[in-house]
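Query protein
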Amino acid sequence: MIQRYDDENGAHFGFTDRWGGVSAVPYEQLNLGGAVGDDPDAVRANRKLAAESLGLDPAQVVWMNQVHGRDVAVVDGPWGSDAEIPSVDAVVTARRGLALAVLTADCTPVLLADPVAGVAGAAHAGRPGMLAGVVPSAVEAMVALGADPSRIHAWTGPAVCGKCYEVPEKMRAEAAAIEPACWAETSWGTPAVDVSAGVHAQLAALGVRTRSQSPVCTRESGDHFSYRRDRTTGRLAGYVWLDG
């Protein structure tokens, strides 16, 4: 099942779960990640199913080669069939109707849209990317295309929550020194990092007032892929696009 959210001003956001696809165990069923060991034909079929369920042309969806960094690509169409997909963790566009996609399996998917300016963005914010500033980089790139942070609607999708993302104490201290809002503690009382909280704090500091957050923790939800829980697993996707 895909959760879809439609803004009254023509912005659209979608987040997948793991069901409704054709991939076999351990990628069952709707794995959308092409670099996790799944059958490429199954991934292509799943991407087609997911796009069409959202009313999108699968050929008009822009994917990324995600590397846990902060680099952003500005796009005005899908990558060509022979093009090398760049290693970036955010894409932004001023082309209405073009869908941007981000893959996750515990990291925080960040979808951004300014319907007035006709600018959209998608970012992959794991702990390294959040701390490196991938979300501020994406917003900066959107502003360069005419977006206004005060008009941007931001959605963060299913991700591992702060009560489940256990890390060493030194790692938590280092992360919190960069983004204090990400300091967290697991439900069993050990050090943790809350990436989604860090992302929302960054968005607020940038002037993004309209922010929505999925209540789903991927590690806790059997309906979602989780790398921390299962290691070998599929990938979820978040999609954002604007009415043409």
Observations:
- Residues 40-53 form the longest helix (14 residues).
